[in-house]
């Protein structure tokens, strides 16, 4: 079942939309630095075109994905079927973080559902390689629901509190790479 696809067709788009969690991996340029792998959930992976995907990047304690994308753009997104037929899809490509204040942010946010609370950027990936494999080794799990704590935390902080948090925690990666650009907007 392993193989490559040329683009995201309707069947693959439906699979991507069904997944409740996906994983994102990035790394800084060079031999040093921390490789990062982050789980994403709550907001689905959105297909913008046959070779373009995006997701809402919400505030967190780390900002490695944004920093690595800003430095070199390399990224892989992995989705696994935890229910139904076994399947793993990896989307390799070049990504970028679109931040509030960027011209394309508002239209992208609308395409991603329009929820603004706790959004620090929208990550857009231009997919260069789509790898499809069996996933026979992926266990079955039952989805029980989303955790509400991140949304509650963002609401409690408010816009001013989130900006202060971003200045304190999201300006640079673990390795000191610059991350969010619009900390003072």
Output the keywords.
eight-stranded antiparallel β-sheet, 185 residues, Pnp Oxidase, Chain A, globular, 4 helices, alpha+beta, 24% helix
Give a topology summary.
Layout: E1 3-5, H1 10-18, E2 21-26, E3 36-41, E4 46-49, E5 52-58, H2 64-71, E6 74-80, E7 88-98, H3 105-111, E8 119-133, H4 149-169
Antiparallel strand pairs: 1-8, 2-3, 2-6, 4-5, 5-8, 6-7, 7-8
Write a structural description:
- The chain has helices at about 10-20, 65-70, 105-110, 150-170; strands at about 5, 20-25, 35-40, 45-50, 50-60, 75-80, 90-100, 120-135.
- With about 180 residues, it is α+β, with helices and mostly antiparallel strands.
- It has one domain (about 5-140, about 145-170): Electron Transport, Fmn-binding Protein, Chain A (Pnp Oxidase, Chain A).
- Strands 1, 2, 3, 4, 5, 6, 7 and 8 form an 8-stranded antiparallel β-sheet that branches.
- The chain is globular.
- The termini are far apart.
- The mean pLDDT is about 95.
Radius of gyration: 16 Å
Largest sheet: 8 strands, antiparallel
Name the average pLDDT.
Answer: 93
Percent of residues in helices = 10-25%
* CATH homologous superfamily descriptor: Electron Transport, Fmn-binding Protein, Chain A
Content of β-strand: 25-35%
Write down the CATH topology. Pnp Oxidase, Chain A
The geometry reads as globular
Number of helices in the DSSP assignment: 4
Derived structural class: alpha+beta
**How many E-type strands?**
8
Order of helices and strands: EHEEEEHEEHEH
CATH-derived architecture: Roll
**How many domains?**
1
Question: What are the low-pLDDT stretches, counting only 5+ consecutive residues below 50?
Answer: none
Q: What's the end-to-end separation, in Å?
A: 48 Å
- CATH class (first level) name: Mainly Beta
